[in-house]
Each structure stands twice: as structure tokens, then as C-alpha cells.
Amino acid sequence: MSEHETKLMRKIADQKAVVSIVGLGYVGLPLALSFAESGFQVLGLDVDAEKVKKISHRESYIGHIKSQRLRDAASLFSAATDFSLAQEADAILICVPTPLTRHREPDLSFVEGTLRELLPHLRTGQLLSLESTTYPGTTDEVLRPPIEAKGLTVGQDFFLVYSPEREDPANPDFTTRTIPKVLGGTTPACARVGRELYGQVIEKVVTVSSTQAAELTKLLENIYRAVNIGLVNELKIVADSMGLDIHEVIRAAATKPFGFTPFYPGPGLGGHCIPIDPFYLTWKARAYGHHTRFIELAGDVNCRMPDYVVEKLSRALNQRAKPLKGSKILLLGVAYKKNVEDMRESPSLEILRALIAAGSLVDYSDPHIPALPRTRRFSFELKSVPLTPETLASYDAVVLLTDHDAFDHDLILECSQLLIDTRGVFQAGPTVVKA
Length: 435
Known about the structure:
This protein has helices at about 5-15, 30-35, 50-55, 65-70, 110-120, 140-150, 190-200, 210-240, 245-255, 275-285, 295-320, 345-355, 390-395, 410-415, and strands spanning about 20, 40-45, 75-80, 90-95, 125-130, 160, 180-185, 205-210, 330, 360-365, 395-400, 420, 430-435. By secondary structure, it is an alpha/beta fold. It has two domains: about 5-210, NAD(P)-binding Rossmann-like Domain (Rossmann fold); about 235-435, Rossmann fold. β1, α2 (about 30-35) and β2 (about 40-45) form a beta-alpha-beta unit. α8 packs across α10.
């Protein structure tokens, strides 16, 4: 064990290490709070000055994280946009987005840009951990060479690990502390230091043999979900053609106590992981001469679901002698999942775009998103409309896309002229169409 490793391990064990979290979004903010709540001095870094301002005023900008947590952590948690402050940190954890390009290839610009900002301020005796989802080899091929070119020796006087995030926003059953943490080190020494750090705030740390193994572990978790969701989405279309309710079938199958895990269909896939991560592996697999047909097929099925919803809506309107063009449509929920304000990769936005292009008059209602912000792909000038009996009755069709708990299902069912249900919330009936 080197002198630098011994010194850093001791600082971590004594909770005297300064921890810097780079990227204060849905992953970084709860992680920063977890370290502060465990007694560590935490410095948050983000390019978004508005986020930094809110943290300074102890205001949460994430719905399921209460502002009281920021107030309670005030003495140990601060934030800044000045990346030169990273030289004060003993451990730096990178939690930035890893989206796809328009050609479904990995976009590591946020990771690479973050490293460029940090590089002048890295020093001996630090640990750097990448938490962003990525393809196997990123830590070793993208992060390690610039660090070592600076004169730091990974595994001796500098420590580099990969430990993928596993946040599930708004899930009350699992927290940052209780979700096991997978970790892979560039060297055994790196793994030891990383395990010591994360073990201070997370109940169980699972160490694997390399950063590549940890990177593939994260992809496997999300590909498993994407493939199974693709399966039930395809089965939903088949069941609908047969006049069967796929949700009834899934509920019945889920009574089997072994060999079956229920997955549920919807209007498409959203969020920062499930729609994106499979394509990180398919891209990397091509470098090894492999074509991941099974994974790509599931991705194609999931990507087609917004079109399926629009088609079902169009047919339901036609049966009532109304064309899609000119019809007033209300979309319920634009967040990618229930009870969050996160719109990343939300299929609701694809459906909104398609309906506007078809000439529909479209509004939305979402208690978590009062106005639609500009995204990398979409820009809509719309604000959430309130749900009242009069509002619901004024639309030719209401489409449930995100089943927020805040929605009054009885009101929606009673007052909608036509209700398109993509989440299996309502029973099929004269005014309810499953999609």
C-alpha cells in the first residue's frame, strides 16, 4: 500500500476527506446530501448557475428531495461553478449526462468536457470516480490517459474508479444509502480506496474485478429492463389485436411465484437510462465484430410505441366521425415516469410532436411540470392546464401518458368524452380505449 493510498484511506475513515460531486442533478444532488448527512464536507460543482444559487439558498429543485434536507446539511454542503475548487477535494465524483447522438451513438461530450475542466486542478492523493452510465472501457480509455499524461500515476498517487449510479427518483422504498453500489477500480489499490469511500455512506458495496466489468454491469441492468419492456410492448399490440387486455394477462402471470417477473407496457420508454443505455453497448459491440440484434430489436419496438399511441387515438376519433386534424387533444402527464418532474427522453414529447404535426390542437396537464422547458430535441410553448370537469369535457380526446398519483382518476373517467389509456389504469368501456 503506497503512502498516498494510506493517507487517503485514513482521511476517509476519519471522515476528514473533502468530497466533490460534479453534476448536481437527479444523481449528484442526493449523493451529495448522503455524504454530507454522513459527516463529510461536500463541495458540489455544476455549470448551471441557477442550481448553485438554489443550493446556496437551501432550495431543492428536485421534487422528491425536500428543501429541509438542504437546510439540515447547510454546514457541510456548499456548491459553486468554479471548477478550480476541485483541487481542495480528496474525492471527486462525476455525475454528468451521457446521452446519445442523433445517430444513436454515445455522446461523451459532458464527461470529456468535465474532465477538461477538472484536469488542471487534479493533484496527487485524490480519488476520481465516474458514475455516469457508459460503455465498457470508458474509464480506462477516456479518463485514464489524460490523467496520466498530467504526470499522475493511477494506482499509486492517484486513484480512479467506476461506480455507476442506481438512483430511482421518487421511489420511497430505496434510497442512495440502501441501494447496493457496484464498484470497479482501475487497479486493486483504486478499488480499495473507492470501496472505503462509498462504504462510508452506502450500506453495501459490491466490488468487481475491473472498471470495464462495472461499466457492463450497469448496462446489463438497464438492457434487461429495456428488453423485457420491449417484449410486453410488443405483446400489448398482439393482445389488442386479439381483443385482450395485456394488463389483465400480466396480472395473472405475476401470480406465478417463480420464473416470472412482471414488466408493464406504456407509450414508450423515457428517462436518462433505459431508452439510451442499450445503444451504448450495441455501439461498443460493433468494435468487436458483434451485432446485438436482440437488443436493437427491443429498442426499435420501444421507439415505435409513441406512433402506436397516435394511431390508436386516430382510429378512436375516426369511429366518432372526427379526424385527427383539428381535434382538441389533452395529454395527461409529460414526465417520463409517475410522480417526478423529469422529462428526459419522455415519449410524451414524441406524441406531442406527432399530434401537432398532424394538425391537432394539443394541450397538456402535468402537476409536476407547470411549463414545458426547452430540451435538446424539442421546444414547445405550452403550459399545464388545470384539470376541472369543464376542462376535461372540452377536449375531443384525453390521453393518459403518465399515471401521476396526483391525477383524479374518477374525475378523468367521468368527464372525458374519449379517454385513451396507455398505462392500464382504467377498465375498457364506451369512452375508454386501451393503447
